[in-house]
Amino acid sequence: MFHITVHSQVSSVPVIGIVMGERGLISRILCAKFGGFLTFGTLESGVVSAPGQPTIKDLLDLYNFRSIGPDTKVFGIIGKPVGHSKSPLLYNQAFKSAGFNGVFLHLLVDDVASFLQTYSSTDFAGFSCTIPHKEAAVKCCDEVDPVAKSIGAVNCIIRRQSDAKLFGYNTDYVGAISAIEDGLRGSHNGSSAGASPLNGKLFVVIGAGGAGKALAYGAKEKGARVVIANRTYDRARELTETIGGEALSLADLENFHPEDGMVLANTTSIGMQPKIDETPIPKHALKHYSLVFDAVYTPKMTRLLREAEECGAIIVSGMEMFIGQAYGQYERFTGLPAPKELFRKIMSKY
Ligand SMILES: NC(=O)c1ccc[n+]([C@@H]2O[C@H](COP(=O)([O-])OP(=O)(O)OC[C@H]3O[C@@H](n4cnc5c(N)ncnc54)[C@H](OP(=O)(O)O)[C@@H]3O)[C@@H](O)[C@H]2O)c1
């Protein structure tokens, strides 16, 4: 569709090129970049005359539609599902406040390799990567940062403007691990200056996907003893074969309590909107943990965190990880320092 609208400009034939549905949302926003004649916006959310129409408010306030032009660089979050992601909200406001000529989109993608091959021009300058594409994305990059390679998952892809090559990074592990360390330090009143408070702790990771690998790798780096519990036991075992530690099936986690004061990190999507009543571990088993972290950040207070707090554990929300991983991505996307205060202010509303 973008090829058609761009060529229509050469032949001076105005073309409205709109693709329906959630996958077509980018055609409705990027028509301003690729020469489409107009786009449609609805006055009210859900009151549409065709599937996938955004509201005028989102076009103007979320995507900064009036600022999009031929030179605007395109960024976006590749995922499935992806509509829940707050990344566009965060980056578009930050781009606007820094005067950076970019737009950040939700990109509902089925196959990350075929997506990256299709959108191969330097106009598509960078991507965030989320569920379930972080591991497949490693193979799609021309070069992968050594840490991301060890983790086996990429959450940030940059397209070099000189030759369109793709570079993969992982900013998840720093975001999550520093949030957990801050949580533990808070409980120690900052008395553990220097060494990581994770050193020597038993650190249980639920999940062995992209976020699970990042957390497990980061905890290991900080000197924790790592246990991986996953629905598919073989994936947990594969991960422990790489980084060391013990593998469990998710079903065995309920009765796993070799010691008290453990750290628990949920890195599955269990409990994420809309299934907010779900939780990966029964409440009674939470009493063995001193800190519980949940990578899920929609909602901010998951059932797991609520029950952990009721059991007396320190809780750390996925929102902290989200903000932390976004700092690194923003700096790679723009070459500018991340507006940390602005990020916190934007996310404090959610
Ligand atoms: N806060 C943040 O900044 C942040 C950053 C990254 C990710 N996240 C969140 O972390 C979650 C995982 O993301 P990801 O990229 O790591 O995904 P992923 O690579 O697809 O991995 C998903 C993991 O969750 C497990 N899983 C999925 N559904 C499950 C279910 N119903 N019951 C039991 N286990 C289930 C999978 O187990 P199997 O191996 O058995 O399939 C796998 O271990 C998502 O909710 C994402 O939003 C948050």
From TrEMBL:
Which Gene Ontology terms describe the biological processes this protein takes part in? chorismate biosynthetic process; shikimate metabolic process
**Domain spans labelled Shikimate dehydrogenase substrate binding N-terminal:** 77-157
Q: Tell me the InterPro entries matching this sequence.
A: Aldolase_TIM, Aminoacid_DH-like_N_sf, DHquinase_I, NAD(P)-bd_dom_sf, SDH_C, Shikimate_DH-bd_N, Shikimate_DH_fam, Shikm_DH/Glu-tRNA_Rdtase
Where does the secretion signal sit in this chain? none
Which ranges carry the Quinate/shikimate 5-dehydrogenase/glutamyl-tRNA reductase domain? 198-269
Gene3D superfamilies of this UniProt entry? Aldolase class I, Leucine Dehydrogenase, chain A, domain 1, NAD(P)-binding Rossmann-like Domain
MF (Gene Ontology):
3-dehydroquinate dehydratase activity; shikimate 3-dehydrogenase (NADP+) activity
Transmembrane spans: none
Q: Name one Pfam family in it.
A: Shikimate_dh_N
Q: Which residues form the SDH C-terminal domain?
A: 318-345
Q: Which PANTHER family match?
A: BIFUNCTIONAL 3-DEHYDROQUINATE DEHYDRATASE_SHIKIMATE DEHYDROGENASE, CHLOROPLASTIC, SHIKIMATE DEHYDROGENASE
Q: How is this protein named in the record?
A: Shikimate dehydrogenase (NADP(+))
In its UniProt entry, the species of origin is given as: Corymbia citriodora subsp. variegata
